[in-house]
């Protein structure tokens, strides 16, 4: 059974999410990849304000392709999350509560997720057409010069994700591997 959540993503909403849960997200989320993350952290280093409010926000690690005529957005599948690992703890410390991507996260990111009571969701790579159906509005809000890697504000409805790392640090990749190994011995 899918759990439904609406942004903003508060600690109250996160506390009941468990590793492996299927979740449908509705509301406002942002896209940002490594180039945009580097710029955000540079602003933090200089003590300057960020171009988006990340408190209780979700960042989707995606660089959508240009929209075809009549479409809201192009292909919007997830990118590999490890590329954001050098930047994620700084943003989590500033109030970011959710990240959506694909793949493993570093131990530093897992510890920061636990410390900040946040969550890491997985989106299915190769399912960009399905994900695109959940996006109702999209607009560039920062770093337009980065083209597909610009920060976009998306309005989503029932965006399908899975809890990969919950706020307690439970990791679906590790648990899945352990369960599999136990099942074959």
TrEMBL record:
Give, as one word, the top-level EC class: lyase
List, in alphabetical order, the Gene Ontology terms for molecular function in this entry.
Answer: fumarate hydratase activity
Keyword ATP-binding in the entry? The reply is no
Secretion signal: which residues?
none
Q: What is its EC number?
A: 4.2.1.2
Cross-referenced Gene3D superfamilies, in alphabetical order? Answer: Fe-S hydro-lyase, tartrate dehydratase beta-type, catalytic domain
All copies of the Fe-S hydro-lyase tartrate dehydratase beta-type catalytic domain together span 6-174
Origin superkingdom: Bacteria
One Pfam family it belongs to? Fumerase_C
Q: Does the keyword Membrane apply?
A: no
Q: What InterPro entries does the record tag this protein with?
A: Fe-S_hydro-lyase_TtdB-typ_cat, Fe-S_hydroAse_TtdB_cat_sf
Which keywords does UniProt give here? Lyase
Show the SUPFAM superfamilies listed in the entry: FumA C-terminal domain-like
User: Which family is this protein grouped under?
Assistant: Belongs to the class-I fumarase family.
Q: What is the designated name of this protein?
A: Fumarate hydratase class I, anaerobic
